């Protein structure tokens, strides 16, 4: 950061700013939930707006949106859509303080205003999951996971159209800055600007605002999940122990301190399609997890397992405290639609005991397990490399997609 030539690149962050994963635990068991998974899948589908162009049910005015962009999860707490303890278990505690809503364009705000509290489409999902295996019981219990068969909820979503527009707007501004400053890249999507430039500072302020929007978005869906489960089981969400285990960010840039060539340096770490994975005793992770390291949530694909890992000192030393964020695509969406059968994919999920609700039928083929790499192989690679450690394996029993 001290080098005046240092740059920031929206392409190194990604278009869906703060696309991330949140894991909720419950005190429910597979024995209780399994027989009613179809009803629960429908209830979650009814409560959480999904799909391209979906509109949220959280009341939101233009001034509310500006407040949410500035305050992040603190806005959700203020409005009663989050619990106080939720904040403690979010990366950055659910709020980037450098956010400036005035740096977010009117077009981005127009796209984001109706979408708060919506899942979106593509690879985003809300899943009911069951604890299938535990590799480290001490770490699992620190996270509130007490037994095999315990039911969790995983939410994967981001900043929706607002974040995408922030990235698009910034690319346009940075192309002009590159010409002015003589910066050359081999791909438009790698457009960048000096961090110290007006364009660089404007992007970081707008990116932080979009990140805050994503935390509010996932908090809003957490509120809807709590309502859905509480209504079905006729219990208060607090009595069902629907608490946030952790909320991790994928597409984001953070100012962090790391050792480089034996010297402590302040860096702007871009994480596109990767997850922060800080080790035990790091000051930026919650007190609850100081002994085990930051929880790392690795979401699977439709019908495959997901994992919870923890950060390690080796990862801090070798990969700037970063690890994988999931399994990338093995084939394009078009190829998946041509190669896979809608009925066959649904039957396979049914045979695995997985209920599914999806707004767009084509997503059934596009998001089928065959469309992605093996998430277990990806996680095992990170585990054996020592940059994160396996703690929990989660198996899906109900999937909600756009």
Question: Top keywords for this entry?
Answer:
402 residues, alpha+beta, two-stranded antiparallel sheet, 14 helices, 14 strands, 37% helix, globular
Structural class: alpha+beta
Order of helices and strands: EEHHHHHHEHEHEHEEEEEEHEHHEHHE
Number of strands: 14
**Count of helix runs:** 14
Main β-sheet, in a few words?
8 strands, mixed
- Uncertain segments are none
Radius of gyration: 20 Å
How would you sum up the global shape?
globular
Instruction: Measure the end-to-end span.
Output: 39 Å
Average pLDDT confidence is 94
β-strand amount: 15-25%
Helix amount: 25-40%
What does the model show?
Helix 3 crosses helix 4 (73-79) and helix 6 packs antiparallel against helix 8. A hairpin with a 2-residue loop joins strand 7 and strand 8. The chain is globular. The strands form 4 sheets. Strands 2, 3, 4, 6, 10, 11, 13 and 14 form an 8-stranded mixed sheet that branches. A two-stranded antiparallel ribbon has the order 1-5. The mean pLDDT is 94. The chain is α+β, with helices and mostly antiparallel strands. It starts with 6 loop residues before the first strand and ends with a strand. The chain is built from 14 helices and 14 strands.
């Amino acid at each position: 950061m001290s080098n005046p030539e240092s740059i920031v690149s929206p392409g190194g962050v990604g278009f869906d700013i703060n696309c991330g994963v949140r894991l909720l635990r419950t005190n429910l068991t597979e024995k209780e939930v399994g027989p009613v998974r179809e009803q629960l899948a429908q209830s979650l589908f009814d409560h959480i707006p999904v799909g391209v162009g979906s509109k949220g049910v959280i009341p939101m005015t233009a001034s509310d949106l500006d407040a949410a962009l500035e305050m992040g999860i603190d806005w959700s707490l203020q409005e009663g859509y989050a619990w106080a303890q939720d904040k403690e278990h979010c990366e950055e505690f659910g709020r980037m303080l450098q956010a400036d809503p005035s740096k977010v364009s009117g077009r981005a705000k127009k796209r984001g205003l109706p979408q708060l509290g919506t899942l979106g489409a593509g690879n985003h999902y809300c899943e009911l999951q069951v604890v299938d295996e535990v590799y480290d019981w001490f770490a699992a219990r620190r996270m509130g996971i007490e037994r095999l068969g315990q039911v969790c909820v995983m939410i994967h979503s981001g900043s929706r159209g607002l974040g995408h527009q922030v990235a698009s707007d910034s690319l346009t501004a940075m192309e002009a800055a590159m010409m002015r400053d003589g910066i050359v890249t081999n791909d438009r999507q790698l457009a960048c600007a000096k961090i110290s430039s007006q364009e660089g500072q404007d992007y970081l302020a707008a990116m932080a605002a979009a990140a805050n929007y994503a935390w509010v978005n996932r908090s809003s869906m957490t509120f809807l999940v709590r309502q859905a489960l509480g209504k079905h089981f006729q219990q208060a969400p607090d009595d069902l122990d629907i608490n946030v285990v952790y909320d991790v960010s994928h597409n984001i840039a953070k100012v962090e301190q790391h050792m480089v060539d034996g010297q402590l340096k302040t860096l702007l770490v871009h994480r596109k399609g990767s997850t922060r994975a800080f080790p035990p005793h790091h000051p930026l992770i919650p007190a609850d997890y100081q002994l085990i390291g930051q929880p790392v949530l690795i979401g699977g694909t439709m019908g495959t397992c997901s994992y919870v890992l923890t950060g390690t000192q080796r990862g801090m030393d070798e990969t700037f405290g970063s690890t994988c964020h999931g399994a990338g695509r093995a084939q394009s969406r078009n190829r998946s639609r041509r190669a896979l059968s809608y009925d066959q994919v649904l039957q396979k999920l049914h045979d695995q005991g997985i209920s599914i609700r999806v707004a767009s039928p084509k997503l059934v083929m596009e998001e089928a397990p065959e469309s992605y790499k093996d998430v277990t192989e990806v996680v095992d690679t990170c585990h054996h490399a020592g940059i994160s450690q396996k703690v929990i394996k989660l198996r899906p029993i109900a999937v909600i997609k756009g």
